[in-house]
Amino acid sequence: MSSPTMLMLKQTAIWGGGIVGLGVFLFKFTVPTEEELLQKMSPEIRAQVERNRELRQQEQAMLMEIVKKTADSDQPIWKTGELYNPWEGTGSKLLLDKVNFEKEQAANKLKSELEALKEQQKKLK
């Protein structure tokens, strides 16, 4: 290689590395963690995030099961099966039905409260 070409490659590597390094530096020191973000939110929004946390975790677990099932199959990746495919109109649009999930959560809460009341009643007798 000639000398001007090597000089251009060195400059490109230095500038490229500098831009990438600056991006990493800015990302590390400007992006808040999840806890910091929650602390800065208003109490109403924070309560809403906390209520929906379990729903999001369950959706994420279901998505991971679908990904594992898709990875184990012999079919191409774009044939996702259970996930909604907008081009073909197949699959479910929702991974987890929020209304049914909230009903199940409320029923479980009521059951636990009922059992606690029954235990208190037994103690009083």
From TrEMBL:
GO biological process: mitochondrial respiratory chain complex III assembly
Source organism superkingdom: Eukaryota
PANTHER family membership: ASSEMBLY FACTOR CBP4
GO CC entries: mitochondrial inner membrane
Protein known as: Cytochrome b mRNA-processing protein 4
TM regions (residue ranges): 12-31
Topology of this chain in the membrane: Single-pass membrane protein
Protein purpose: Essential for the assembly of ubiquinol-cytochrome c reductase. It has a direct effect on the correct occurrence of the Rieske protein, core 4, core 5 and apocytochrome b.
Signal peptide stretch: none
Transmembrane is among the record's keywords: yes
